[in-house]
Amino acid sequence: MHEMAICEGIIEIVADEARRRSFSRIRTVCLEIGALSHAAPEAMRFCFEAVAARTIADGAVLEIKELPGIAWCMACSRSVEIAQRGEPCPCCGSYQLHVTAGEEMRVKELEVD
Fold first, then answer.
1. What is the domain count for the chain?
2. Where does Zn(2+) bind (predicted)?
3. Is 56 within the bounds of a domain?
4. Which of 7, 68, 69, 87 has the greatest count of CB atoms below 10 A from its CB?
5. Alpha carbon distances (Å) from 112 to 28, 84, 86, 89
6. What is the domain extent for residue 25?
7. Average pLDDT of adjacent 10-residue blocks, the chain of 113 residues
8. Residue 88 lies in a domain
């Protein structure tokens, strides 16, 4: 379960930011996760709660915004939404797709005290 390691990294990021900006508590962490990032949002929520315990983010809410996978179809010259790598273009059926979005994962916002 690589989500645990990812959540540990998120806690490090928010703890570093808290030290830099003198936050006393993290209330909410807003995270963007792309559909092609290979991170399961439900697993992230579970792991975040476990990793945040006894840290500055103890009790914080993890809000996840799921972003779609987007690819450029070289055959029909369209930007298309895909759920996973390896699937065909929903418009023309071609497999000549170049992923342009949906692999990202980033801390977008923090709600703090």
1. 1
2. 73, 76, 89, 92
3. yes
4. 7
5. 7, 34, 40, 42
6. 2-68+102-112
7. 90 93 94 94 94 95 97 97 95 97 95 92
8. no
